Amino acid sequence: MLNYFLKGEKGTRLRFMGMLLSAILVLLSVFTLTHKGLNFGLDFTGGYLTEFTTSQSVELKELQSFIAKNHNGEFELTAQGNSHFQLREAPSASTTSTAANSLDWQSAVTQNDDINAQVLSSAYIGSQVGDELFDQGCLAMFAAMIAVMIYLAVRFEWRLAVGSVVALMHDLILVLGLFSLLQIEFNLTVLASLLAIIGYSLNDSIIVGDRVRELLRVQSNNILSPATIINNAIKSTLTRTLITSGTTLATVASVWLLAGAPLQGFAIALFTGIVVGTFSSICIAATLPELLGLSAKNYEVKVDAHTQTLLDMP
Description:
Elements: H1 2-5, H2 8-36, E1 39-40, H3 42-45, E2 47-53, H4 60-68, E3 75-79, E4 84-89, H5 95-111, E5 118-125, H6 127-155, H7 158-182, E6 185-186, H8 188-217, H9 226-258, H10 264-283, H11 288-291, H12 305-312
Parallel strand pairs: 1-6
Antiparallel strand pairs: 2-4, 2-5, 3-4
Helix pairs in contact: 2-7, 2-10, 6-7, 6-8, 7-8, 7-10, 8-9, 8-10, 9-10
């Protein structure tokens, strides 16, 4: 069914429409990131993180309203289950003030008969530690990007390399844009998932790029147009791509649904990255080189006059 849509001009038109859609989504993601930013977790901002359980099922909104009456600062309450909750407190001007707020609301929820909460753990993360983790995480991602660019520059002709790099940037921007739009907590596990997305997106683009290069090398007589060659390359790798992406998505979806709240951000980022990575390997990594003038001539073997004379001899 998919091979039918990738035939001839129809396939080329779909690829270009997909690239236009990708450009629109990237612009929207950049706009969202600029205006809303990312919802950084305690790993980066610092503050108190408290986990507690209640003796019976309590509505999240009711519990949040009750804690707000006994808390003077900013906080965020999330449900980890029917009776398991996690409260994140933003760092205040002084650690003493934050600690006093924590004791106030903790005493209130543990002494209330309707809630009867039990505190499981409470920890404070300093902002200095968060800044250091953020800097190191960004440095790791930057180093990975540089390594990827060097690898692509050595492996591919520059047009295919540019297509793979642009597809990689597209995937990262769309994942960050989704986290900004939905204000999902951005923590160290999400940052680690971005590094995994870099590897997955690169692998997907290389599979398609390798096939495009192979077909261009055998088209020395230029019978087929570059668009037809790219369509044929995508069709020949489509089954493998869909099977790989499908099995990976099934695993990530299981983590998303069954592993609990601590890994939800990680799973959402990976799930989104795999989907947009598969899409970009077709609509960007394989289509952008065509716009840049990729053709079979780029892979013709150049020989000098003496060698050509020898080749022409009977």
